[in-house]
Structures are given as C-alpha cells and as structure tokens.
C-alpha cells in the first residue's frame, strides 16, 4: 500500500543554526538540510522555486475556522523544518521519497523517481516514490493541479537528493580514507581513488547525524544528465499490467465493507425520509442503512448487494436546486448574463469578423469513480482516497466530523484518472460522514450513474469573439466567455484560501475564477488591442477544473475565428498563423506540424485538415488533424455508439521546455488528443428537467476505439528552455481547436455548438428512480 | 447460504454467497481478486474483462450461480499461466503483457487489466480465423480508456499478436 507515513518532522525546539528558509545561491547552488535520525534523511524546502503567481492573488481570508485557528497555523508554519520534503537513504541501498502530490495517471511518480535517481547517481529501480498523506504544514504546497507538479517540485526534489548525495560522499570519505573530491559515486556505490568502495546502503546509517544541519549543494548540470530527458517507462507499469496496482476500492482495510449511496432523482436533491429502512436492512448481505446529507447510504457484504439495496430503497426526496432546469433554460440565463462586447472601431474601411459559440456541460468522468475508505472512531478518523488537495480535505472532513484536524489522518491513494475531478474530495467527505453515522468502517464507491449524473464536470458556457480587420491587419480582438461557475472552493489546497473562495454571493469564488482565467488565458497572436473577459453566473452545479479548465473552449472559439480572419484576408490558415503568431517557439511547433503532417496535401471532398496552436503551462503546442465527414464514415453503425465524423490523422508538436520524461510527455499528449476529439465531436451531458440524463459510458461518449485516429504522431521538440513546463493538460486545447477547424473546412459550415452532436440524443435515458441500473445477467451469452 | 464452486486462476474455490451476486463482486469483495475493475457494472466499460473457459467475458454481468464447478475463470492475475513458461517474456508475463510494458501503454492503469484480457481474446479470435489484426479489428474493441491510451493500445496489440 503506497501510504506508509513517516514525515521525519524534527522536534520543534531544535536549533538549526541556519536560516529558516533556504535560499538560492545561484542557478545551481542551493542550501538544503541533513536531518537528524537513524538513517540518512536529506531535505529541501518546497518553496525553493519562485512562488507561483497565483499565491499573490489570494483573496483575503475572511475568518478563521473554529477548529483550526491562526495559532495552529502559525505553530505549523513556525516549525523550522516541518515544511521540508525529504529523501531517505535506506539500509538496503534504496532511496525513498514521499511525494506531496497525487499520482492519477500523469506519470509524476516516474518523473520524480527519475530526478532523484539522476541527482543521486542511483539506478531508477532503486528509487521508491510513494504519495505523502495530508501534511497541513505544507500549506499551499500539496495541491496537484494546473499542470504544476513538475514545475514546482523540479528544483526542491533535486536539492533534497543532492544533499543526500553529498552526505553519502562525506561519510564515504571517512570510511575510505579519501577526500570527497577523490570519490566517484555511480550506481549506488562510492569508489575511492585506490579502488576501495562502499555502497549507499552501508553508508545510510553512517551518514546519519544526530541534529539537523544546513549544507550547501551544487546541482548536477543539465548537460550531465544521463537519465532525465531520456524516454523512460513508467515505474508502476508492471503493477498496472498485472492487476497489482491498488486503487482505493482495491485496498483491504479491516472491516471496511462495500458502501453505496441512493441519490435523489434531481441533481443535488436531498433525502427527507426513508419509508422502508427495516425491509432494506433485512436484505441479504446488508449491514447498515443510514440517511446522510447527500442521500441514503447502504453498507453490505458486496457491492452487488449494495446495488440491490440502493434500488430497493423507497425514499422521500426534496428536489434539488436546479429542478425544472434544462440546457435551454440555462442557455437563456447565460445569454442574459453576457456583458456587451466592447465597441470596435468603425470606419468605412474596417470590417468585423465574429463568432458566437456554445459549449455544453461535460463530465471529467475518471474510470475509477469517486471512492473513499473511511474509518471514523470516536477519538479519531482515518481516510484513504485519491486526493489532489488532501490538506483542505483533512480540514473540511475534521469540520464535518467535529474533530480537530490532527485527529484525522488522510492518506493519498493513487487514483484511476482525475482530469480535475480529484481536486475535490466529495467521496472522502461523504464516506467520513457515513462511517461516523454507521459507527463502522466503510468502503464507499459511487456507481457510474452517480459519477455521470452527480459528479463534477466542466460548466456550460458561451464564448463570443469579435475581431476588427483593416486590410491585412487585425486591429482588435475581443473574446468574452460567459459560463456557469467553475468551482474553485478547494482554494490552493488548504482551508484559508478555500474559505476565501467560499465567500458569500460567489464573490470569493469569482475572484479565484477571474484570477485563474487571467493567469491562464492569452491570445497567441499579434491582433492589436486584445481583451478577454470572463463572466460566471450560476453556482448550483457540481463543477470544477476539468483538464485544461478554460482553455479548450476559449481556444476553439479563438481558432475558429482565426480561420475566418484568414479567409477574409484570402490567406491559407497555416500561413495566416505563421504571420500573426508572436513567439519563436510557437512558430517552431507550427512549422513542425505543418511539415510532418503534410499541410495542404490534396484531400478528397468531405475530408479536410485543420491546424491550431496553443500556449500555456510554460510550453507551446501545435496540432494538425485530418477529419473524414463523408457519409460512409459518419454512417457507420456500431451498437450503442456514436460514430459520426472520424479524425483519421493527428500530428502534434509540443515544446514543454525540459522534458523530464519524453515518453511520459508523449503519453500525456496522446491522451489530450483523445480528450480534444471527444470535446469537439461526441462528449457532453444533457440537462433535462433538473437532472443530467447520462448514466453510462454508452451515454456519455468519451472517445472510443472506433473514434480514435488510426494515425497519431506526437513530436517532442528539442527546447532551448532548461526547466520543465507542465504536461498533464497541454494536449487538449490545440487538438480540440484543430478538430473544430478541420470539421468546418470539411463540411463548409463553421460549427457553433460543442460537441457537434449535442443536438441529437443518441441513447435511451436510464430511469432516475431507482437512481442506478441493475447489473445484467446475460454475460455468459456474450463471450467473445 | 448457497455454496458456489468454480475454478479461478487454476484453483477450485468455494464461496458462500447468494446465486444472484454478480461474479465481479465475488471475485473482488469475497476472494480479494482485484485485477478486474469496476467501471460501470452494466457490461459497457469492459474494465472487468476476464476469460471464462478461454473466452473474454464480463463478470459484472454474470450471476455467480450460473457458474459450474468446472468452469475456469481467468483474471489478469492468472494470465501469465495461460502460456508455457518458455513463452513468457522478460518479466515472466504473458506476451501481451510484455508488449504492453515495452510500449509503456498504461497511464492511470485502471482499465488496463481489462484492455489486456480483451486484447488476448481478440488476437486469439482473429488468429483462429486465420487473419492478422487490422484497424477494423481494433475498432471493434469496446473497452474504454479515459486516459486516452488508445494509440499505444493499438500498437501493443499488433506487437503482442506477433509474440503470441
């Protein structure tokens, strides 16, 4: 299980004899710590990098919650080394590290292990990276989001590893009777000039010290990297392909029996009473039935018996806050909330090019549904879940349970996908409440229908664009996004900023939203006066930061209008982008996809290419796709499926700066490509009469094998940059935009609603009472 | 409570559980065999894909009472034993698993046991019909991967087919 915890916090009264905060000496020289203990523990401060700009924009905290007050926070913050991250050298010669981030498939345990192996000159297989439990002392530094993990941890992790390496060399110098300068460390063995040697494992205890001490280290030069930058397979791949990789519902926690929740027929409806509690409690395998804030929870020997019990429950419900609402009514509200577009210069010679686009609700829908294990006792609680903001999860769970935060242990489990979903901790909070109410450990799992209908997703919105053209120049470019609120109430991962985001009347969350919008959105072209605005309007839905947050919609609207501008100027879309882009790295990725993807090649009628660019997460990307909209393709008949137009070929180039693991980066782009295709063509939620209709993977049409391009090429560009950018989300926006542009060119009609098939419902909705479907019984007739 | 007896990964097991409990939950919640994953419970996502008597099936859609004492269920945990030791690769695994490793297919990994079990059955079926894997064959796979690893899955299946 990936959650053993030993944070090596030193006693608070230890005198370090060193500055409380390490400081950067020059680009590669840093101060870190050797911490006291029985084996070698090396540490670095997580704030060794420049603080992310978002932290300067935090809304002022309105009040301090009762159970975790300012004194608690100051005590945590004052402990001089409590906020350090540590690399431990073990007696068997391995190194271990607890990463204060969540692995959800993006490959950060692999890239982190590579950084440590590189700096320690240790084989990759001798580095073990696990996920740290919630560590409140890390404050803002335990949030996995914004594609920020590698950007923010690249230097601190290397410093911690470099401190360990130096301590090992110093210990070896004594053992081998040589100077540090005369020693060579390689493969976990340190060799002296006379050929004598000692292993890291033998040195682990000898290099340990009784008190903490600060040391100055020099990081390896990027030019000397032998592992970082080399395509490397994932460290968890064998576990994944053998079924040994454990997700939350795979964990065997004593007494934690399967638990599910019966939910209201309307979105976020609440239970009033249960009419047949005793009858359901008497069903086979059922141990508990409890009414909780979100529904009626059942606990049973198997999840199958939970499904039976949920379906048997007869519950009186209070309707949810969007009862009666549908896509059409929400769209009317969005239209009413739109700000007037700024006036554009009007002269006899200027012309206006505009676009008005609608984007429907989408689900981030990880394969591993919301799940959590909770064991709540009168004197404390333990939680296990895939959590990207575990500190605020711990704090909010403590509030819900009426316990002090230090009585709530929150373990972070590797998750089966996130796409933003696990920034929130809905299942962990719900499981804690259920466990407390039942006075029994629970293994809570959301049904797929719950996940689609009640889970979080990307809000619906409109995006309007207008540009002013004079001759062959663009004088102005205005873009205005109006959407249902994106929930940022996880704050920056701890309760202070989360409370700031939860200020009344949406003021706090809107401040966050505006900040994130302002910090992520840009128009990557020289278009004169550029204005981008965001209006958020409705806080009744379960939303959150879905992979790439605002960018997919903003960039689709922008790039479709860019194609219109090119047409207005009678320019080729690729040449137009070449002319107006304003970044040499962008130009390089654009030229690369145009060449590798054979831009402009002759294509049959009904098929076309589309091209788009994007800049975010300190990286740049370009995508060229080919789409087939001919009837023979769109008319393909596949059982319970959406076929429609098919993207047949994708050429994608990314310059992410230093690519720690190019193979992992390529994988993230391939995934983002499939997301972009889904957003453009097939995947959305339909709101009708107060609930989302989708309840199955054959309703919510994420890209499937029959939709995925048979020909995908991802090019990882050599980069001038020496530091890494973000990878997890960078593949989505340019792909979505390129697919939309290709579709417009293939059909001769610019699409204005997304996904393009949203207008027709391609499935028979499942019932809302009972809220989840029964499992079929015909599996033995369907073998293949 | 009825006793259910069948063979799983080469071992005959007996479990006390009602006839109508779907095999997925018997495997996961009662026997602790967690390779087959839950993704929908209605035979759509295919994350629980395993083999019964050598053919792909989805245990979420099979009441355990339908199994006989000699029915052989193979989950991802038992896949390596389906080939002779000499056929196993560097990691001691089935050729399809080895192809998966060489292509570094998995991202979050949640759907991957089901993907691999579906891939092995597909290759067996196509090769029994005397063919080789085509794009059209790959397009028939219904297993969902929300991480979007489809590109590498397609490469790995072609690779694995050659090794099988």
From TrEMBL, chain A:
Which Gene3D superfamilies does the entry link to?
A: Aldehyde oxidase/xanthine dehydrogenase, a/b hammerhead (3.90.1170.50), Aldehyde oxidase/xanthine dehydrogenase, molybdopterin binding domain (3.30.365.10)
Q: Which GO terms describe its molecular function?
A: oxidoreductase activity
Residue ranges for the region (Disordered) are 761-784
> Signal sequence span per UniProt?
none
What SUPFAM superfamilies does the record point to? CO dehydrogenase molybdoprotein N-domain-like, Molybdenum cofactor-binding domain
Name the source's superkingdom.
Bacteria
What is this protein's record name?
Answer: Xanthine dehydrogenase family protein molybdopterin-binding subunit
Q: Which InterPro entries match?
A: Ald_Oxase/Xan_DH_a/b, Ald_Oxase/Xan_DH_a/b_sf, AldOxase/xan_DH_MoCoBD1, AldOxase/xan_DH_MoCoBD2, AldOxase/xan_DH_Mopterin-bd_sf, N-heterocyclic_Hydroxylase, OxRdtase_Mopterin-bd_su_IorB, TAT_signal
- Which source organism does the UniProt entry give? Nocardioides zhouii
Q: Which PANTHER family match?
A: ALDEHYDE DEHYDROGENASE, BLL3820 PROTEIN
Q: Aldehyde oxidase/xanthine dehydrogenase a/b hammerhead domain location, by residue?
A: 242-321
TrEMBL record, chain B:
Q: Which CDD domains match?
A: fer2 (cd00207)
Which Pfam family would be a valid example here? Fer2
Which molecular function terms from Gene Ontology are attached? 2 iron, 2 sulfur cluster binding; metal ion binding; oxidoreductase activity, acting on the aldehyde or oxo group of donors
Domain 2Fe-2S ferredoxin-type as annotated: residue spans = 2-79
Q: Which Gene3D superfamilies match?
A: 3.10.20.30, [2Fe-2S]-binding domain
Write down the InterPro entries for this protein, in alphabetical order: 2Fe-2S-bd, 2Fe-2S-bd_dom_sf, 2Fe-2S_ferredoxin-like_sf, 2Fe-2S_ferredoxin-type, Aldehyde_Oxdr_Iron-Sulfur, Beta-grasp_dom_sf
Matches recorded under SUPFAM superfamilies: 2Fe-2S ferredoxin-like, CO dehydrogenase ISP C-domain like
Q: Kindly give the PANTHER family that the UniProt entry links to this protein.
A: OXIDOREDUCTASE WITH IRON-SULFUR SUBUNIT (PTHR45331:SF2), OXIDOREDUCTASE, IRON-SULPHUR BINDING SUBUNIT-RELATED-RELATED (PTHR45331)
The protein depicted here goes by the name (2Fe-2S)-binding protein
Give the originating organism.
Nocardioides zhouii
């Amino acid at each position: 299980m990936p959650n053993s915890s030993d944070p090596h916090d030193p006693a608070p009264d230890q005198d370090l004899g060193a500055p409380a905060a390490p400081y950067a000496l020059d680009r590669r020289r840093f101060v870190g710590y050797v911490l006291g203990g029985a084996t070698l523990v090396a540490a670095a401060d997580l704030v060794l990098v420049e603080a992310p700009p978002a932290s300067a924009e935090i809304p002022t905290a309105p009040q301090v919650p009762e159970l975790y007050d300012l004194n608690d926070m100051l005590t945590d913050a004052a402990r001089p080394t409590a906020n350090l991250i540590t690399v431990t050298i073990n007696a068997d010669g391995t190194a271990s590290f607890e990463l204060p981030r969540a692995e959800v498939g993006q490959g950060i345990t692999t890239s982190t292990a590579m950084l440590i192996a590189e700096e320690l000159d240790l084989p990759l297989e001798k580095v073990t990276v696990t996920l740290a439990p919630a560590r409140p002392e890390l404050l803002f530094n335990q949030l996995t989001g914004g594609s920020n993990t590698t950007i923010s941890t690249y230097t601190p992790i290397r410093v911690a590893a470099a401190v360990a390496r130096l301590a090992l060399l110093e210990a070896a110098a004594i053992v081998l009777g040589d100077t540090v300068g005369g020693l060579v460390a390689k493969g976990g063995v340190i060799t002296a000039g006379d050929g004598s040697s000692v292993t890291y494992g033998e040195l682990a205890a000898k290099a340990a010290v009784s008190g903490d001490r600060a040391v100055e280290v020099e990081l390896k030069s990027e030019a000397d990297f032998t592992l970082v930058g080399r395509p490397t397979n994932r460290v968890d791949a064998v576990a994944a392909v053998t079924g040994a990789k454990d997700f939350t519902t795979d964990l065997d926690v004593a007494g934690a029996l399967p638990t599910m929740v019966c939910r209201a027929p309307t979105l976020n409806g609440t239970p009033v009473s249960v009419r047949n509690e005793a009858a359901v409690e008497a069903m086979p395998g059922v141990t508990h039935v409890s009414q909780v804030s979100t529904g009626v929870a059942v606990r049973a020997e198997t999840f199958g018996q939970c499904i039976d019990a949920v379906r048997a429950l007869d519950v009186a419900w209070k309707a949810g806050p969007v009862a009666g609402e549908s896509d059409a009514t929400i769209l009317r509200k969005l239209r009413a909330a739109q700000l007037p577009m700024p006036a554009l210069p009007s002269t006899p010679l200027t012309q206006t090019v505009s676009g008005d686009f609608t984007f429907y609700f989408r689900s981030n829908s990880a394969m591993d549904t919301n799940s959590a294990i909770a064991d709540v006792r009168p004197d404390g609680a333990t939680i296990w879940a895939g959590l990207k903001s575990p500190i605020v999860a711990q704090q909010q769970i403590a509030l819900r349970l009426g316990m002090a935060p230090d009585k709530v242990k929150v373990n972070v489990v590797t998750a089966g996908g996130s796409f933003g979903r696990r920034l929130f901790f809905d299942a962990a909070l719900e499981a804690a409440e259920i466990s407390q109410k039942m006075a029994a450990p629970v293994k809570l799992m959301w049904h797929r229908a719950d996940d689609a209908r009640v889970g979080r997703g990307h809000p619906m919105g409109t995006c309007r664009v207008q540009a002013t053209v004079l001759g062959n120049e663009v004088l102005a470019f205005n873009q205005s996004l109006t959407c249902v609120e994106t929930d940022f109430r996880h704050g920056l991962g701890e309760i202070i900023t989360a409370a700031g985001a939860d200020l009344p009347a949406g003021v706090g969350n809107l401040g966050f939203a505006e900040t994130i919008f302002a910090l992520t959105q840009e128009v990557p072209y020289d278009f004169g006066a550029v204005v981008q605005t965001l209006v958020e309007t409705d806080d009744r839905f379960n939303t959150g930061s879905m992979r790439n947050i605002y960018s997919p919609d903003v960039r689709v609207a922008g790039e479709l209008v860019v194609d219109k501008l090119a047409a207005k100027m009678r320019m080729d879309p690729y040449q137009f982008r070449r002319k107006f882009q304003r970044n040499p790295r962008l130009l390089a990725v654009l030229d690369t996809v145009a060449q590798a993807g054979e831009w402009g090649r002759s294509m049959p009628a009904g098929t076309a290419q589309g091209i788009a660019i994007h800049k975010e997460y300190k990286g740049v990307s370009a995508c060229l796709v080919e789409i087939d909209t001919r009837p023979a393709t769109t008319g393909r008949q596949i059982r319970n499926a959406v076929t429609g137009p098919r993207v047949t070929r994708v050429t994608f180039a990314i310059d992410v700066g230093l690519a720690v693991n190019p193979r992992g980066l390529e994988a993230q782009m391939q995934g983002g490509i499939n997301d972009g295709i889904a957003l453009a063509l097939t995947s959305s939620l339909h709101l009708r009469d107060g609930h989302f209709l989708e309840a199955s993977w054959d309703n919510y049409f994420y890209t499937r094998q029959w939709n995925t391009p048979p020909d995908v090429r991802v090019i990882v560009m050599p980069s001038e940059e020496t530091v890494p950018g973000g990878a997890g989300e960078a593949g989505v926006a340019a792909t979505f935009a390129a697919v939309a542009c290709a579709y417009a060119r293939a059909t001769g009609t610019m699409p204005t609603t997304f996904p393009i098939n949203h207008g027709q419902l391609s499935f028979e909705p499942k019932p809302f009472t009972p809220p989840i479907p029964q499992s079929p019984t015909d599996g033995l007739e369907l073998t293949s | 409570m009825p006793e259910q007896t069948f063979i799983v990964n080469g071992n005959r097991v007996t479990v006390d559980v009602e006839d109508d409990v779907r095999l997925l939950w018997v495997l996961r919640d009662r026997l602790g065999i967690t390779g087959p994953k839950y993704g929908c419970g209605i035979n759509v996502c295919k994350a629980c894909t395993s083999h019964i008597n050598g053919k792909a099936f989805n245990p979420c859609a099979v009441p355990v009472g339908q199994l006989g004492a000699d029915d052989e269920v193979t989950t991802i945990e038992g896949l390596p034993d389906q080939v002779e030791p000499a056929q196993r690769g560097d990691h001691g695994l089935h050729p399809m698993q080895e192809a998966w490793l060489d292509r570094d297919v998995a991202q979050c990994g949640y759907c991957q046991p089901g993907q691999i079990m579906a891939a092995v059955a597909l290759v067996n079926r196509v090769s029994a019909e005397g063919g080789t894997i085509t794009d059209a064959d790959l397009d028939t796979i219904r297993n969902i991967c929300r991480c979007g690893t489809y590109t590498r899955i397609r490469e790995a299946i072609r690779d694995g087919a050659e090794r099988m």
